[in-house]
Amino acid sequence: MAALQNSTLDAMKNNQPQLLTEWIKGLEANGATRNLKEQDLKQQTAEFLHLVVSGLEKGNGQNVAAPGWDEARQYLEKLSHSRALLGQDSHQTASFIFSLKGPVFGLLQSHYKDNPAVLAEQLWEVSELLDALGMHTIRTFQKSREAVIKRQQEELLELSTPVVKLWDGVLALPMIGTLDSQRTQVVMESLLQRIVDTGSEIAIIDITGVPTVDTLVAQHLLKTVTAIRLMGADCIISGVRPQIAQTIVHLGLDLQGVVTKANLADALKLALNRLGITVSKTV
Amino acid sequence: MSPRSSGTHPINIEQDVVLARQLARKLATECGMRLIDLTKMVTAVSELARNTMVYGGGGDMDWQIIDENSRVGLRLTFRDEGPGIPDIKLAMTDGWTSGSGLGLGLTGAKRLVDEFELDTAPGQGTRITITRWT
Ligand SMILES: Nc1ncnc2c1ncn2[C@@H]1O[C@H](COP(=O)(O)OP(=O)(O)OP(=O)(O)O)[C@@H](O)[C@H]1O
Ligand SMILES: [Mg+2]
């Protein structure tokens, strides 16, 4: 297989400022620079071009898995990770590398203008190399992205058990977000445990932060309510907005005598009432 | 209104059901649906998308914003290549479930929308199209 010639490497090495200018222009044109500071972009392009040149100088060819490309690979991994955190998609991150092709091809075209056979061969070599580096970016980008999502999911799971004591004997459980089965299970268990620990008589499940109440959510709620009742405590569901109430009716859900309230304040009022506590203004 | 008025959303894992609801919410908002209608439509999506995932073994949700004769609406089709529903009448009975659900998803979804069309046969997969006008 033909290899990348020293002459090609020299051309790239000696024309870095020109390549960088054109590369940045290309990136701006296809929108890959959104959310990026100009300063960072300048630095990233310069650093990466330098790594490509030095990787080639070490004679690694296009095998980007070879040890000589370690530095370039690590750099791309860092870059992918930081861009995933910025919320960029893999398309934008890969464009970063693919956009370097245009300037390099232009350079080689004038460099080898008298030798079309070598030009074609060298274009192919450079193209293969940049494709391989681009693919590496996409792969690592996806990994970073998955890691970010996984971390967010775990954070959510941890955040998901805020059982709040509102009054002696009254616990509130504000549910927020999507009640997928795994999370609901965790929330439910911790509520039941806190009822036992505090000897509470009334639990208020607040669903103000739950955008959709469907049959699965209802099933989870009903199971929780049943368990609370079995423990000898009472349960009120609050945060049943008008649109949620209507939807529940249309779905045909039977809330089995569960007391519901439109908001948490009303639920607390009812709970205090049941405990025989009256709250009044001091005059 | 969105420049694109139709598209497809995959429904394969739990996460996709969440995303399908979010997409439906966004589309319904673009259609100018009232909060109450939007909530009903999104709840129907939740039911049908989960059925597609659980019973259909995964599939797609096609979406289309309809803008015709001075009325605007959102039409969604849930498609899967799963086992299909052998007894439609039974499946469309309140409280009947072949699994461990409440058996209210299909019938509830039907009551939550303006138009409901079910096309299924054993071994032929399932297609459910729902429409809600604004
Ligand atoms: N896409 C599908 N493919 C095959 N069978 C289906 C499909 N959708 C529904 N079914 C069948 O119809 C039955 C009724 O569905 P329905 O959504 O009404 O109830 P469910 O999913 O069992 O419980 P839930 O009340 O939690 O939705 C299901 O139990 C299942 O057997
Ligand atoms: Mg269902």
From TrEMBL, chain A:
Annotated Pfam families: RsbRD_N, STAS
InterPro entries in UniProt: Bact_StressResp_Reg, RsbRD_N_dom, STAS_dom, STAS_dom_sf
Keyword Cell membrane: no
Domain named STAS: residues: 160-275
UniProt feature coiled coil, ranges: none
The keyword Plastid is assigned to this record: no
Residue ranges crossing the lipid bilayer per the database entry: none
Keywords: Phosphoprotein
PANTHER family with a match to the protein in the record: RSBT ANTAGONIST PROTEIN RSBS-RELATED (PTHR33745), RSBT CO-ANTAGONIST PROTEIN RSBRC (PTHR33745:SF3)
Protein known as: STAS domain-containing protein
Native organism: Pseudomonas arsenicoxydans
UniProtKB/TrEMBL annotation, chain B:
Pfam family, one: HATPase_c
InterPro entries recorded: HATPase_C_sf, HATPase_dom
Domain Histidine kinase/HSP90-like ATPase: 38-131
UniProt name for this protein: Anti-sigma regulatory factor
Species classification: Bacteria, Pseudomonadati, Pseudomonadota, Gammaproteobacteria, Pseudomonadales
